[in-house]
């Protein structure tokens, strides 16, 4: 008998099922936390994106804008998709992810069908240290500030920090809030548009690069998925444009293993207290 | 008798009034178009932001994410604000701008109270040609591609293109989709957070820089307002990260006259057909 391929941790944790009443439900996995039991914002957005795609005639999320209303609790969640205008090129919808306490994440979703078309312009992948010479976050969790609990996310997304942007982990923060890292799922599941949505919020807070430690809760996050990623490691570059007045932005660009820009994101977060 | 200062074109065109029934209404001004009677997406988002602020205990929009469902018609519009969680630091809400045909723009809004706090990090303003040596779009409307009608927006927002990024207007497109320009309102109204929301979508499509002319309708736009802008000209730099598969992103950064980064935006748009 043929063996059934085991479902990846990501596909299991982001599964969305139709309930008997016709609604959509998910079981939020406590293992995708960023420390302290707080579920990762990118993970939650992947769940919402899966719901948007389920209710769309298009296969891929291409633009998602999410407001994080409260920290969603692990466990049962409902997903309510309100369809908007839809056509041959794209479809709009609104998605609400709710836990027992009510709406936790509200999302404006645009779905479309991504192709393998060559780009007429694509930002080139920046020079980065080869992945085999990078620093595994999972293997160096003991280097994290002692106030920080080890996030489950780091066991599911394999993050390899470019040592050129990892001085903060060795007590030598940089002048510029920028990090680069190679990412893939720890269990080898290949990237796809839904995975890129999680990758778009999977690094430590960008402010850590300049030595501002502590969590930076996401307030609003926009993710654009631009192309179908090739198998293999993705390179992520995260920059903050400004840290001021208790606020921080984080701007991600993600390239696939062929060097193609496949996703972009920007979030407004609360800045760690100094 | 003291003279009443005339209200600026921007404040008049984005005014939001409470109706007898307790709702909110605006009169969308046909003069803020981008050609062909299509109202500018940034202008529409400023109207929605004004509604969000009206219904918030906080004074400023700090994060707005908008989906553009259909081209809003000039004339009467309603604004429906659904409040979300609100606190001392920030407040969430959802805003729907509707014309006679129904919801045209849906917006997730985060309001807060911006301060004049110094930044602990702020991306420096790029080198740009001084404004007096830049190229006025309004004065050079005759250089636009003949297929393009002159947008009303160019008469209300004074855009001075850096000649170093304006080769496209002279038949010499660049390799890189990037434009820089100085912006202010034509009637001298000083910038504020609501104005920055319009400035965040006020340049010609970034694809024009590489010679891909034609309109690029906005699908989703996120604007972050980071600080209160000082009076005077703002510098805007717009870049596309990728043009592919019929899609284009436009990434704006805006600095005020003191060189402080005051706003950022990113939009996904349909790319002009080639």
From TrEMBL, chains A, B:
Domain Acyl-CoA thioesterase-like C-terminal: 145-269
InterPro entries the record matches: ACOT8-like_C (IPR049450), Acyl-CoA_hotdog (IPR042171), HotDog_dom_sf (IPR029069), Sec_Metab_Biosynth-Assoc (IPR052389), TesB_ACOT8-like_N (IPR049449)
Pfam families to which the protein is assigned, alphabetical: 4HBT_3 (PF13622), 4HBT_3C (PF20789)
Acyl-CoA thioesterase-like N-terminal HotDog domain span: 29-111
Highest taxon of source: Bacteria
This protein's name: Acyl-CoA thioesterase
Organism: Modestobacter marinus
């Amino acid at each position: 008998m043929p063996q059934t391929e085991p479902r990846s941790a990501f596909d299991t944790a982001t599964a969305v099922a139709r309930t008997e009443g016709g609604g959509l439900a998910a079981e939020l996995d406590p293992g995708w936390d960023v420390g302290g039991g707080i579920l990762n914002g990118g993970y939650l957005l992947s769940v919402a994106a899966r719901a948007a795609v389920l209710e769309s005639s298009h296969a891929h999320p291409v633009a998602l804008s999410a407001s994080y209303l409260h920290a969603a609790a692990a466990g049962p969640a409902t997903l309510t998709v309100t369809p908007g205008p839809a056509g041959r090129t794209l479809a709009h919808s609104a998605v609400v992810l709710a836990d027992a306490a009510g709406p936790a994440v509200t999302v404006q979703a645009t779905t479309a069908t991504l192709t393998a078309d060559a780009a007429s312009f694509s930002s080139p992948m920046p020079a980065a240290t080869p992945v085999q010479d990078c620093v595994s976050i999972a293997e160096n969790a003991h280097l994290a500030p002692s106030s920080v609990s080890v996030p489950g996310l780091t066991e599911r997304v394999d993050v390899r920090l470019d040592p050129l942007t990892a001085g903060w982990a060795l007590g030598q923060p940089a002048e510029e809030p920028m990090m680069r890292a190679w990412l893939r799922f720890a269990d080898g599941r290949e990237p796809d548009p839904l995975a890129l949505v999680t990758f778009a919020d999977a690094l430590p807070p960008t402010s850590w690069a300049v030595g501002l430690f502590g969590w930076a809760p996401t307030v609003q996050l926009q993710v654009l998925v631009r192309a179908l990623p090739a198998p293999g490691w993705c390179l992520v570059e995260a920059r903050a444009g400004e840290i001021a007045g208790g606020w921080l932005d984080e701007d991600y660009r993600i390239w696939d293993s062929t060097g193609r820009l496949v996703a972009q994101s920007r979030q407004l977060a609360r800045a760690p207290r100094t």
